[in-house]
Records
---
Amino acid sequence: MADSEKTFRYQAGMAPPEPPPVEARRLLCPHCGAAVDLLLPGKSETVRCQKCLSILEPEHAALKLREAYNEQFPHRLWIPLGREGILDGIKYKCVGMVVREDEEHARWSEYLLFNPYHGYRYLVESYGNWTLVEPHPGLGLDAKGYPVLWGSSANIRLAGKKFRYYSHYRARIVNIIGEFPWRASIGETNEITEYINPPYQASCEQVIQYLDREGNPVDIAALMAAEHGNADAQHSDDEEKILSRIIRKRDLRQRTTEIHWSVGQYKYPEEIKAAFQLDELPPKEAFGMCEPNPLRTRFWLSLAITALLSLVSCASCVYAINNAEQATVLEKKFILNTAEFELKREGDTDYLEFSFEPGEIILPKETNVEFDLKSLLEQQWLSLNIFMIHSESGAGYIYDAELSRYFGVSDDGESWSEGSETTSLTTVKMPPGKYNLYAIGATNVGIYEFKQNLKLFGESASGMAQQLLGPRLRGATQQGMRGVVLPQNFAGKENSPKLELTLRVTRDVPILDWLFPVFLWLIGWNIFYLVRYRSKEKER
Amino acid sequence: MRELWRMYIYLPLTLFVTGFCLYGLIHQKGGQKPLQAEKLDIKSIRKNPTAFRTTHLPYIFRGGK
Amino acid sequence: MRQASCPACGAPLVFENAHSLYTVCKYCRTMSVQAEEALREVGKVAALVEDGSPLRLGATGSIGGKTFKIIGRIQYRHPVGFWNEWFLVVNDDEEDAWLGEASGQYYFTRLKKDAELPEDLDPQKLQAGEAVPISGQKFFVRDIQTTKVVSGEGELPFPFETGYEATVVDCVSSDGDFATLDFSEEKPLVFIGKPVNFRELNLVHVRSVYGFKATDAEPVTT
């Protein structure tokens, strides 16, 4: 053989040797003799016989037994081995499946997909939710730009995206089927940290080397296996405790030698079903870890609609303001002498009644009218009935306006005040035309002085006044009854308290009260959608 | 888009509420409604305001009865 | 491009890259080296292991507007799977370029002969996640692995030795650059570049493997 190679001479036109094509190969299981289809010779380092479930290893052109089994695969393969499907425009072949579980015995399946040009992917199925996971060549970095290590609950950046911490757990391989490019075995555990940014997900796994006192690496798996044999049965599944016991006993040092990151994207079940031409899929039993939150979309939609409608509202508002004339048609200050008022009683309340004529206004077209009333009150009240009398038809429109202001100091020394010096009312749209204004008011301004003057200058003054006040007023309690008036002229009439009030009348003012219910409505719904979105997030 | 259709209560109600309110805003609906009276004559009121207050006012406030 | 013939079997050899000093004859798998105008035989090299790689000598592609051709390869065995370093000739480019490839992951790198590394860098003491400055740029260690040379083919700027073991440290920077430190020699070889995906390489003349046609390498429209 060596001789013939040495004597090999090139002859013109000779074709260079071509390697044979790479394709799936049918081999035999050394344990049960069944045919095993090795889909990826040259890539796979582990393959499982589908008949007896023995774990085999391709070696040259045959299979070598690594672990013998005589079992039936107890898990359901939703995507059959060898099935091809197109995801994100790339054709993959399903070559293997791993069933894993965490400490809480929550289980999920990882289908190993392969494309020779694009590499391996994991299609993870967990309670009916699917995620396509791709190894990422980078490292997850924290806010300062440093790699985050395993188990870190910081928020990270990877593949140009931000992710938030989701969980850290230890996953155990429950079962495997198909073929794998690494030495796969059952029972192996691995710690995983997961981060999410729906529909994306990032996960981090690390490879740790254990070194003895001299700095030589030790075979931790062998030590663990040996310790498993020693340990009591009830401790047998507590990997972490065994590991820490070995580390303590042998004084081992840990060294992280590899950090593997991968990025996943949520896939809707319908997409998986169509891609792999499946008839059936596992039922969706939970809200996926990186499933896009539909309520988040709805929340953003409601915010967008709010923004849009707010804009429309503001535009309508500008329109309404621009279209309103807002012309002041009357502005007058009235100084009324309380001595000319009429004392009346209603129930136990004495008050002064008065009337005056503010003037006349003209409405050229059908518009509303705004009345602004102002009076400097001090522990007093004032109530006004404003009559708008249409000069042609004689129709009267009566509006009420009330004003009061009280203030003082409470027992614990805090000063307080209530009411105000101004009030304003806007009418509905009024028919066009000329209006005479007439106002009838009631107040307690000057009532004390009125009663004093009544005692002094009443119809039968001095002694009589005391008695007079009682029965006559009592007679006036019934509404509409004539009250008590002071004589036309009496000494000190001019010095009686004055009621000062300012009335301004504006026609065609914009009514913007409509905005309030719109905003209240929109804000209410936004809060509703925000609360629903946040509570759905907690279901992950 | 699918989520937009799922907001089937929110969408029509919101469009109705805002539509209604903005209609009111543009057409300047609203304002305080008056109490109405008929056949008032400013000249006769002016002549005897006290009588108007004492007799006519309660009549108006009773609703014209 | 230079023409020569294999000193062992006389087959025609072509050097497409001016930096190529070594070449493996595809007929008789003899490695020869250029020495003073002539080719000198170095010795026979081991056979490559079929690793199912979709790349091959003669495949062409383009990256960042520059076209390249695969002209050589060194095959390594990692603890998990195979790793190929494909030697490229890049149009209008003096610098050596390599395409690292392992099961669908690709790294386009260039050998930086003047790269500056910390003096006391010991790959046995490094840990993943640790910062390593390379020529002033901050890189972080992603993995530390021991690799073994399997074999090679085509033309190469340096020779390889089957079974030679070396520690290789892969690093990434915060802006996505990638660096490989190859501790096979006294002074580590430094390759700096970027991870790329298959589509960015615009490769043509790739191999059909495992029943996937070369046309499947292009995006499939559903």
---
Amino acid sequence: MTVKLVVNGDALESASAPDTPLLWVLRDEFGLTGTKFGCGVAVCGACTVHVDGEAMRSCQLPVGDVDGAVTTIEGLSDGETLSAVQTAWVAHQVAQCGYCQAGQQMQAASLLSDNPQPTDADISAAMNGNLCRCGTYPRIRAAIHTAAAALREG
Amino acid sequence: MGRVAKIARRTFLVGSAAVAGGVAFGVYKFVEPAPNPLNSSEGRISLNAFVIITEDGVTLVSPKAEMGQGVHTTWAALIAEELDVDWKDITVIHGPPAKAYYNSALFGMALPFKDYKVNDFQQAMREFAGNGAKLLSLQMTGGSTSMRDGFERMRLAGATAREVLKRAAGKRLGLAPDALETRDGQVIAPDGRTLSYQDVAVEAADINPPSVELRDPSTWRYLGTSLPRVDMEDKITGKAMYSIDVVLEGMKFASVRMSPRRQGMRRFDASAAKAMSGIDGVIDMGEGIAVIADNTWIAMQAVEAVDIDWEPSLYPDTTAGLMQEIEAAFDAAPNTVGRDDGTADADHPGQELLAEYSVPYLAHATMEPMNATALFTDDALSIWCGNQSPTSIQSACAQEVGFEPEQVTVTTTVMGGGFGRRGEADVAVLAARIAKKRPGVPIKLTWSREEDMRRDFYRPAAMARMRGVVNAGQPVAVDVSFAASSVILQSRARPALTPFTVEQAALSGSDPEGLSGAHDQPYQIPNYRVRGHIVPSTLPIGYWRAVGASFGGFFFDSFIDEMAHAAGRDPLAFRIDMAREEHAPSVRVLEAVGEMSNWSAARSAGRALGVGFTYSFGSPVAQVVEVVEEDGAIRIAKVWIAADVGIALDPGNIEAQLTGGCLFGLSAAVMGEVTFRDGEAEQSNFYDYDALRMGAAPAFDVQILENAPYIGGVGEIGTPPAAPALGNALFALAGKRARTLPFNQSFSFV
């Protein structure tokens, strides 16, 4: 029995049991290691991916329950062209250890697709589930504002 | 500015001076360069242990491990500054474990003089002591030492490589090297002819490096500027390879469940785990079990499905018992006297203050859980592991499988956080132990977050007894006693893995590092004594961001704040007065943070400021925290930071380290606590061991000063002043002094 998935535009089949969390199918079966394991219980946000554009914690999403196209950090950019969120992350030199930043960016991209001009309070509410132990929050906040402005200006 | 010859001479002179101390043997060894571990091969020429020229460009070796602190970038900038290569053309790698990559700054840290009063002779002593690290071949990233270690050595590495390239080009062109210039990877002749570094690298590798003069800082192109990090794009595109991301052909996935009580197993029953699908094997690991499986998730489920009867802990099995063990250490004579100015134990006229403080055990909780990949064959072991100490991993893994260290290769990847945890070799040794059971099969061992919490080497809990005297608005005496386990002594005495015996925990010796943040503060107090009582405990403890100063700074600076209030003085002015005749750079950071925060201006009701100050790792840091009461809960609204790092090599990165270090300290101060029951840590994941999130993180304003005469540490210095600054602000707001961390036991936070 296999599970059919679309990941970053590619049609893939998983041989894992349907209750296997999407995170481990991506990492251990497909070799897409950009999506990170942090807690396993959806409290740190390191494993955040998009399913049909919506941010989801892949460590708590059984692969058999995935009902849309999956986008991971590897698919956030358009080939070599960085997305607005990634461009802002570079401009603000956000990452320190970088381990949580795939999840942070996937969450931020999802926020900006819902809310093109988020306030500081909107950012706090949307990003509170994404833990960073290096303390990059001030730069994440600044980068989200920069990315929002870039997206509005097209 | 230094020359190679001058450094060698200075080392010899200091060596001679120290002969009376019995270290004459070392002098020749110190100046003899360690062998270059990098082999030159087709299309790849190594000019020294730090510079490799390839057909594609220039690769610089940063043997310092990148755990987020930006060290690969600034280390590379030190070399590139003298080598004259374009920033966008360089590649940075970590390199293998090797003697050439010893940490020369590490051993210079625990010398018996006041660090902030260091003069030229003492600085030379510090460098000399660092040569001890070379003899021990200790390649270690920690103690905020990287820039102090590399500041001169790496510019020399770049300059000597440049000079041999010029000499090789000069031979080709028939010109004297002095007639040539270098720019962006090219040697340029006066007539405009150019040779690339690639063109002349092969000949350059055979030329002995001459003495070189380092460039004047006023001519620096990279150093002193905020450079784009070399690891940024890989980290924001998911391409960065942490050790948890290692993928090898035929790899199997493993997880472990080792004793949370740090002793053995009485018995275990793995029948339920073996019945699960996707299981490749259950392994008896002595102090626990391992499961090999088709994916990491199955392995993690399976280890939890094994029924295990653990032996009890050797250490007291509750938090209360552990704190009693700590308190009992006060009954014995102190092991360490860190400072004893005047007569602190005498009666002095004035108002006497007495206080007791305590802090809990803390976890590291790096975002990337502990992991390592191992491949064992008949005559070789390969380890992939993000780590802060590759030479210790190499020797510990060699010992585990019965090999010589030379048979073990260690690949050090970037790390998803370190904070001291990744100086331990335990996870690599466990991976080696599993891999030895499956020769030829690469085994990736990944811990669950729960395993990461219950098998940490915790930041030690500590207690302090403080006595102070103030009179007529002035500090007269401060007499401080700490009780805590010694990180430095325990980590030297114990094996890579628990269990530790009582004998291994019964440590003798002294530990000035355990008094950091208290005995080494740049204050003139007529009677100033700081002593330490080492707690002999088998509970595993370890390095943590600013470990000693993370609690010593809290105890000492909070009590200084108490003394200021008792003396009827402004807390900021009180600190400035004590530092005034002792250490000018510290006065300046305190003044700067006062100006930045508009300290003397009144705040509206429900809003208050607190100041914290700690000198640590060679750098004074002052922080002012603003707290605001919102509907009965407290918000940390803003933090102003002023720090003096002597020479600011990369201001943008230093700002990131100062704010990140402060947030690390604030998280611990507000909510960090590991407690024990039945000998096991009660916390298991981020829902019960959390840190500040985006919504609770304050805004920051940072100023970097450069008045100190020597380069100071950066990566840890933001942490120590955070807890006292917050506690002092809470006192200013509520009139309540919380002397026990975390503060959420005494206050509600948003």
---
Amino acid sequence: MYAATTIGGGLGTGLLSFYLGIGVAALLRTMFGYDAWDRDFNATIGYIFGLVGWLMGVGMWGTWGREWFGLKIKDPHANSRKELGWQRYFMFNVDHKVIGIQYLATFLVVFMTAGLMAMIIRLELMGSGQDFISNKTYNTVLGMHGIMMVAVAVAAVVGGLGNYAVPLMIGADDMAFPRMNALSYWLVPPVAVTLLLSPFLGGLETGWTAYPPLSVLTDSAQTFWNVAIITFGLSSILGGLNFVVTVMFMRAPGMTWGRLPMFVWSMFVTAWLALLYTQGFAVALIMVTLDRIAGMGFFDAERGGDPLLYQHVFWFYSHPAVYIMILPGFGIALEVIGHFSRKPLFAYRYAVGAFLGILGLSGVVWAHHMFTAGIPNYLHGPFLVATELISIPTGLIFLSALGTIWMGKLWLRTPMLFALAVIFNFACGGVTGIFLADVPTDIHLQDTYFVVAHFHYTIVGGEIFGLFAGIYYWFPKMTGKMYNEKLAKLHFWWMFIGFNLTFFIMHWPGIEGMNRRIADYPESLQTANLIVSLSAFLLGSSFIVFIYNFINSWVRGPAAEANPWGARTLEWQTSSPPPVENFLTPPVIAGHPYDYGVPGAAPHVTFFPPAVGSPAGGGGGGQ
Amino acid sequence: MPTMGAFQKGYLVAVILAIMTILEYLFAVGVSSTEVRFAGLAITALAKVYFIAYYFMHIYRCWREEAH
Amino acid sequence: MAVIAAHGHGVESHGASHMSPEKRLRVNRVGLWLFFFSESIIFGLLFTSRFFLLGTHQEHVDQFLGLVITIVLLASSVTAYTAETAMEKGNRKLAQWALLGTILLGVVFAVGVGFEWSVAEFGLKLSEEHHQEPQNVVFGTVFFTMTGLHAAHVVSGVGMLVLAFIMLSRGHFSKESHWGISSTIMYWHFVDVVWVFYYPALYLVAG
């Protein structure tokens, strides 16, 4: 009932406002002497109206909007206190644990959908020539796969696991701005709907990068796509802002900066990146939209514009975006490796410094995506050097991970396997990155499948493996149930082997010069592509195991203990799943989170006054 | 300007800003070298932003407690 | 959206139940500053694009009009400052009048920009009869985009000021607790800060 009123209310007001917006746009156009109807213009205005209507309809009006007019609001926490069962996930709920699960579930669905699109792409590329789908459909599928996977990579860990775990790990009862947190989640459904509708509104032709002049000239769903992505950027910025303020101000007493768990550090740095750079994508797409609907000439060379401007502004975001994607992966990997090696995390301070170093360097490397785009030659050297400098902080993170594993008492449960795979895969992805950062090799490899293999190794191998490490690691905490270890390990090995086969072999057609984004290739590359496609199907099918295990364990898995991993960090010192207020008594932090087996080390957490029935602080002994 | 009342302080800053704006305009119209003009405008803009952020937007309250 | 974000967490008062009012205020304040920081990157990217596309080239603009609307915006900052300081001293009457003045000056500024657009000597289309050079069109593009985005912020700021004014008239806010007004006025000053950069970049840089 609650779920139906929320979603129905949102859809109702959203649609009404959408049509209102279209009408207002038509009226304005008539007033200024234009034709009343221009699809892209009217739809853009309609979208903005519809977005606001949707947000107000799903619950922002009652819990927030009324306040702006001096009216009484409903208590936004009322929803989280009611016993609502599954329905609480379909409401405007400000509890960070609910929002985390909303994000995670949404983006797992998006991930699987985009994965199916990858299967379609590999099906088409299994043989040379046009086999299954037309070139136009191929472009649409490719663009959708790209942008949806980028969205997953940007938001699944940050929005899902970050929202769930960060307040728990720093001993807070919620994020700093709980309602804004709910707002950043509820901005996502309109984005998803618009993206999923775009194949029916004309398709996509530009891939996820939307380079002009094609994106300005194309007669496709480009404008819808633009406004959807700008909305997603807004969600990302507001989320990042919330994380930054939360980590700065909401830490429990004694939780000094030097005692923050690695995952919190990675989320803090990621949030800064999202806050500082996401605007680049938004501004680039605003320019494209204005060129399309308002006749501006940013990218029209005939009227004095410059398409290269787009690439500068776009990559100003989209390079830091790869760190938004990978740093949470590193954070989870270090977190899990720290707890499952049962010894203090090696070089904690250097790893933190590495995160901050990547934050600093990420903004000065973007033009390495543009070596062949016609930028002046004098820019090649500085961007080459700056890009390769990033391998120093990345190396420090590897140092920390390897130093922790070294002589550790490894406990090879599924989260640990995934975390070790992050380190292995990212090493491969990092090495191929050097060829792409070097101008001479990049000129040959630009826009080939070598690039595709490289970024799948870093983003999928680094972050998506990290995402699954995190899902298995926090699954008992989130659901209160334990997953099936055998199936989880099966999923790991299946995915790991499928992934490495697919993308390791993909380097080969890349070096041979096979172009990315093109539905066809010369017959000489037939064998390589056949192997890649078959391996990709192997990789894709591994997620069936995951889905089965995930749903089955959530519904009827055995109840999980409060601290199944014997970990020292805060989130494990409360019940599984935690109560609405997270901790029944306020936690006080006394020691370092990773001091396993250190003689005389203070427990990380004590409770004051000691909570009755909650597990003792520390938990250093393990299994 | 610690001894001044809050209103007077703000109006003094506003007068400074107004004078800077006029000077900025006269400077830009009068100077012939593009580089000098650009540098002068940049410095004026940064100085104006400092005044607005500190005295009008009270940026220091982010790290210093407020009086009341 | 700026309205929601700036004004919205301006009045965030729930959640984190055991947070003291002082801490809540500081968290809100830092959050609002981060929002400004993040917005300034949008404005900064457009500002940089202007120089990327045109260098310091500039078409003819009405200098007098530019100076007048700049002074109007500065004057609105002064009235906004008066309103906030009056609130801090508990003088609600003065705060109301100052808010009203800010709203009026904001409207004058927006109308001024609209007038500027209607008399602009550059357009978005190449045409033989007006001897439009490509640079002229690009200047039109950056001019309309930059002033348009800024004006959108002015208009949303006016909307927020109107809401603050209505709430103040209805007896909301007090000497101790007036974050709703403070945040709106900070947002207004931020809009002024943007103009501090945009005015020289669009009107003065070519002399």
---
Amino acid sequence: MERIRFSFARKKPLAYISHLDIMRLFLRALRRSALPVAYSQGYNPHPRLTLALPLPLGVTAAEELGEIVFAEVVGPEKFINILSLQLPGALELLHAVSADPEQPALAAKVCAARYRVYFSRGSDVTGNEKLLEQALEYLMAKEEIILEKKSKKKKTININVRPYIYEAVIIKKEDKPLELRLLLKAGSSGGVSPFFVIEQLTSVIGSALFNDHDWHVHREKLYADHNGTLQPLSERM
Amino acid sequence: MPVDKNVLEKVLARVQKPARYLGNEWNTCLKDHQQATLKMAFAFPDLYEVGMSNQGLKILYESVNSRPEILMERTFAPAADMEGLMRENDLPLFALESQEPLTSFDVIGFSLQYELSYTNVLNMLDMAGLALYSDRRSEKDPLVIGGGPCVFNPEPLAPFFDLFVLGEAEEFLPDLLAEIAALKAENHCKKELLIKLSVFEGVYVPSLYKPLYREGFLCGMEKLDPRAPDTIRKKYVPDLDRAPYPTAPIVPFIQTVHDRAVIELFRGCGRGCRFCQAGYIFRPVRRRSSENIVKTAKDLVTGTGYEEISLSSLSSADYPQLDVLISAVDNALSAGRVKCSLPSLRLDSYSVKLAEQVHHGRRSNLTFAPEAATERLRMVIKKNISEEEIFNALSDAVEAGWQGFKLYFMIGLPTEENEDVEAILTLCRRIRQYFKKEAKRSLNISVSVSTFVPKAHTPFQWEPQLALPKVIERQQLLRRGFRNMSGIDYSWHEAEGSLLEAVFARGDRTLAHLLERAWQRGCRFDGWSEHFSFERWQNAFQDLELDPGSYAYRRFEYDDYLPWDHLDCGVSKEIFIREHREALNGDLPEGAVDGTHSL
């Protein structure tokens, strides 16, 4: 038995496939590679592969995390070398480590994620910074931002997600369209999507900015809580 | 018109399921266009998820791309949202592999699987920027060819196509493409090129034949060039073990309708059910050897990584000693935890045993197709199973732990009376009661009822379709009956869709203008109930003063000239007449499996 934790990047064309599609893609790549994947016990055994946090459709990512259990020792290096041969270019394995099987799952550790929302090159959004800044200020000053969610029993529950928005800043770099950086609560104890934040901004400034220009969401990092501070999960694999 | 990559990227960000249009899936073949002597775009006139489930596509992709000098890429019908954005942004229909527009290919080959995809064919030609009618396309335009089961009566589409391939193309298509490349290199004009191609077996060039009419009825086909054959014989692959078969087919990024690897156990079917076109046009029955199947299964797992392999055919349990074969395949696949599945099972105890063998305890629902609910009617359609056999098979299945059944029936079969339809209710009620007593647990029973569509090259080709009001009446009879029967989930096919299917399955070239008109009126994806609009079709019929009934409800006489009489499927008209007579006289056919075509 060996538990391997790994990081990978997801690039443009593959941003368009769902979390389940990514899972299927990994599992089929693993089967082609003939690596000895371990299966769960029970009536309907399934391969022991999990990803730390599902990626929303359309979002690219710099450093996603996953873990897999093998029935025999494979070793992180061999894992990367062999599995990489079976993965499309847009899904790149970055790093792998052999992890303690007793540790809690990555999915249980994720508590925040950092996103970049950027307008594509060539879209002229100059003059919008002020507007966006004010909207952000207004949003962050609110006590409550309500997200309506359907519970399992199809009841609507209201969640105040304002505390989930840890950071929201506008970055303006030379000769680059403006960029929004978000640090958002994520994981099993609740979270908020970057698309919801953009929706909220739109409700303040109107739809023009985000509807008329092309923009893209990129997930940069996942974080774990380490004694009350956020630390990159990739450093704590 | 080239494809602007930046515009395409923006469009993709705004459509549903952009992965339909991405290409670049695992095992995609990307060849250099400059090096190819001939470039073909395989066009599937339905959504990506449907097209990528088609085994024919995968086989032909392999057979063409295994030749270094020619290439094949794919394109599918864009969904409505994508169509809108493509038209708005002047993006022409493109092939997924290279993102090159379809007009940059030498040949566009449509897969014609289903009559209700015909408007998509026209729409795709239009989105490619091509004229619909073959005689209005220029010498520079790609040749538009078609293949698949609908080519056994392609007449409604004839004016849009340059050439059809009748029958199985996996061995022939690469040669045909090479021949086209050679003829093009000799600078033949399109007309001359088509005449030269028409001499090949399986090639049907519709522009070389002119339908003749007497008093408004088709009475023959006039050959317009002496070099063209009188009748076109279908092409078929003599030996499956030697024919090209993909062991590393494309693995889509998104879930498709049939999201699994497929091995074809055998082609053709020896049962001879009289309504079933596949059972006739894929004759003779040809079996893949068990050694080949086991090896192919292993290669497929290494090549694709799929978690499931389907052992497919028209009637899998007819494969000799299938139980032994399944064990061998299972052994070969156990390391990768790959599951086998068996579609198209017969309703008998042997099949239930086979299903048990492949499912290893994962017991959900078993699917069976009795097609008709009375023994008399099953005899008419030559689906010869007795009620006793049905009950034996079902009770075996329940004993083995299956949770329920899905049962397929047809209404509108020749000689059918209301009592045959009521018998569907009676049979289902009896099944339910029987198992309440025997199994002491409730079963999921779902019943799906389609409408019989008479198809070319079957013993029922002369038969009219049951008239629409009658079909609806019988559907309602079933709906009422099932409403009072708890625990049975009843679904049915839209009657109007089946009517159109019959119109195009039996129609002739006079329907081409109707298709064009329907497409102009916005008809697309007619096989999808959320897109199908019978009203638009009715308007199109009215526009051209045509009556759907005159195509769907006409009873052909044996000496009538049928729109597909110049196409030879390999089964003689005498056999069809004999089978048809036998069906109507209710004579007992000589055993279920036709001796001359058994495995």
